[in-house]
Design brief:
Length: about 240
Amino acid sequence: MYYKNFSKVYDKFMQHCDYDQWANLIKDKIKESGVEGKKLLDLGCGTGETLLRLKDDFDCSGLDLSADMLTIANKKLKNKNVKLFLGDMREFSTGETYDIIVSLFDTVNHLTSLEDLDDLMNSIYSNLNPGGIYIFDVINREFMDKMFPGGVYYDDRKDMTIIWEHFRDEDLDIVEAVYFVKNRAGHYEKLKELYEKRIFEEFEIRKIIEKNNLNLLSIGKNDRIAGERFFYMVKK
């Protein structure tokens, strides 16, 4: 099951994330695009924190591959008029189409091949209304090298210790994650999970966007909210 263990610690892991800043950045980009319509899908919505911040301005829905993440999101968004769907971003259909689709926190880097990226863009085209936009961010090789000096990311917090070991296998970045999480009894529970990521080059992304009849509106670099990352905005 996808991210079964990570879902247990995700919000604790992301407790220093400035979700308000992320939401404001997305709102600015949506305004910049000039898109008409307010129907928004958060593709890879996780535990729903971004949706909580967008729901008052847009008609929001969320989709994620992890049933465990969605269970947490559903509790946060109960009675808030936000629809949640279980699905794979590479090939999804909610039975609805959208004016705006977003994938944040380098969700796209969790795809592991160019074929996956192609499938994603094909699904984006199918699920966007004419004139609709897709906004997503990706990280690059430099980001990964900075995050894993010597191949290890280590974070010791008051109630959780995180150890991520990183290595490369051909085109993939593999992360073996271990979390030691303090429970209510004061004991530490050990959780393990394996993640795969791929670094996509700009020319690869451009080519696949064009192949799927989408128009690249902009690429913007941002190094203020969560390390250096690149935001792409495409339009149908």
